[in-house]
Each structure stands twice: as structure tokens, then as C-alpha cells.
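Researcher: We plan to redesign the surface later, but first we want a full-length starting point. C-alpha cells attached.
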């Protein structure tokens, strides 16, 4: 059984940082596209960042320059470092795993397995 468990979400003030983790079991993240998405009530889920089997990453316009996606293949864990947080970053953040080596699009349709989400709240 494939299981993705996010952690690290919290409430922080504007300008603060959070480091989200996604622990994966039942599936090897090495050699697969992995991604982070976020969603707020009333809005569609949006891609934040992804990383492919060569550790090449892609970011949404809002995340670029502030967020960093990374992974530890040995620990089978995906990370999202979020710095300079803004209130508009407030969302439920989801980890996702794909089945291909490359990341073809920062789109939820490219991913097969999903975690339950972890809430990040940024207050002013």
C-alpha cells in the first residue's frame, strides 16, 4: 500500500519559514517525479513545485525564489522549504508522487498518489 504522510505545517507570521516533509512508504521516490500542491477553500488545487528523477525542479510563479523543493532518496522523503511566507501562502499543502522519471507538467493529473495534506497558515 502506497502512503504519503505530510508534516511540518504550522501557523507562522508573515516573513517566517516552514519546512514541510512528506514521508513515503510502499513506493520508491527515487527516479520518479514528485510534487507539492496547495489548496484553499473555494479554489482549485494548484501546483507549487515539482522535482524529477534528475533533481530538476520547477516552481509556480508565486513560489519561485522563496520555496525550494528537495528530496532525500535514502529516506524516501520529499521536502518543501518555504521562506518569506505571505498570507496568500495560507493553504493545505499536499505531497504527490508520479509514475514517470520526468515531470511533464505542474498539474495534478500527472500524479498518481497523494497525501492527506498539512495546513500552513500565515498571519499578518
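Model: Full-length starting sequence:
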Amino acid at each position: 500500500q502506497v502512503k504519503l504522510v505530510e508534516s511540518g505545517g504550522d501557523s507562522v507570521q508573515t516573513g517566517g519559514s516552514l519546512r514541510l516533509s512528506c514521508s513515503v512508504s510502499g513506493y520508491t521516490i527515487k527516479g520518479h517525479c514528485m510534487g507539492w500542491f496547495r489548496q484553499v477553500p473555494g479554489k482549485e488545487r494548484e501546483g507549487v513545485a515539482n522535482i524529477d528523477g534528475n533533481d530538476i525542479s520547477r516552481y509556480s510563479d508565486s513560489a519561485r525564489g522563496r520555496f525550494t523543493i528537495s528530496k532525500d532518496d535514502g529516506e524516501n522523503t520529499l521536502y518543501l522549504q518555504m521562506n518569506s511566507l505571505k498570507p496568500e501562502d495560507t493553504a493545505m499543502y499536499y505531497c504527490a508522487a508520479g509514475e514517470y522519471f520526468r515531470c511533464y507538467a505542474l498539474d495534478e493529473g500527472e500524479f498518481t498518489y497523494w497525501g492527506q495534506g498539512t495546513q500552513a497558515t500565515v498571519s499578518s
